[in-house]
Amino acid sequence: MSQQENTQSHDQCREDIAGRANVADSPELLAYYKELEKYRAGALWSIVNAIEPWQPKSASVPVLWRYRDLRDHVLKSADLVTPEEAGRRVVYLNNAEGPKFSTAVGLLYSGLQTMRPGESSSAHAHTASALRFIMEGSGAYSIVDGQKIPLEVNDFVLTPNGTWHEHGVDPEGSQCIWQDGLDMPLVNVLEAGFYKVHPDLRQAVTEPVDASVALWGAPALRPQNVGWDKPSSPLFRYQWAATYEALQQYARVSEGSPFDDILMYYTNPLTGGHVMPTLGASMQLLRPGFIGKAHRHTGSFIYQVVKGQGYSVIDGQRFDWQERDIFCVPSWAFHEHVNTSQTEDACLFCFGDLPVMQALQLYYEEALTDNDGHQPVGG
């Protein structure tokens, strides 16, 4: 029996030994359920299969958002609304039914934001942690707690929970697009969300431009007598050139993972841990011709193709991707990645809720053992 067939068997077994299917409806039971509803209560056996499954079953599905399909719509939004009108001019990625949480996968939010030269947003702060990954354009910047941070293509930028922040594009720049990622759905599920606008609408720049990179950006070096007592990384900007060089160096001395080839996590330089308590991120390099094996793990993840082309098989569906496409892997979905080029590497940026899974000791992982570690493709 395969792993996937075994999963179905477990689900059926659950119904047989502890589920709603073993309790036949009767007039007395139906009346009993109605009575309980009056007191905002219910019978556990009537819902146990839904709330206590044998294994994770995500409400999200694998999705590939093709950049060539979305880009013109993202740019068009600049013709339709201003940053002042919209607050943030964003096309969000939706994998949910209804607008309540608007998740891209699991409890993760993502969207594509655009700004034109000379535009800027008002300063604001929120409970949700946020990140940016810069996709195209020049002259973009964020101001985070008084520090102006240039945003260059393929840079990874943090906006930690509770920080004052605003975004803009210098007048001499070009129209920019970046991907936003937030833990907003998680914060909303926990009913802990706050949002506020800066009383002056703009914040003063009180630190040197890109100060966090100057202080914390050197690998394996820590500045003397500089304190930091916040749970998020003090480094707000992770530059692409240094990231890609680190991946290449790692690739020269490592056989890599059979699932992810060369994968490196963005880290807090003080602790070596994740960049933020609720959101983590990584960059991986798939060497030419790499054919990954399938595995699955708890946690939800969103990928952006930074370089190259290939495909991923997620829960038996093949998704062919190219540069700037975005796709998601729901929790406990088998997935495998392939670089179809025989001469060029491919790079995938990824962010997800791994810090939450690990902190709550909810992270589990397993490899697919059937079919030499590869999924049959059904669609």
Automatic annotation (TrEMBL):
CDD domains listed in its UniProt record: cupin_GDO-like_C, cupin_GDO-like_N
Residue ranges annotated for the Cupin type-2 domain, each copy included: 112-169, 284-350
Cross-referenced InterPro entries: Cupin_2 (IPR013096), GDO-like (IPR047183), RmlC-like_jellyroll (IPR014710), RmlC_Cupin_sf (IPR011051)
UniProtKB keywords: Dioxygenase, Oxidoreductase
Any Pfam family hit: Cupin_2
Record-level Gene Ontology MF annotations: dioxygenase activity
Designated name of the protein: NADPH dehydrogenase
Organism from which the protein derives: Xenorhabdus beddingii
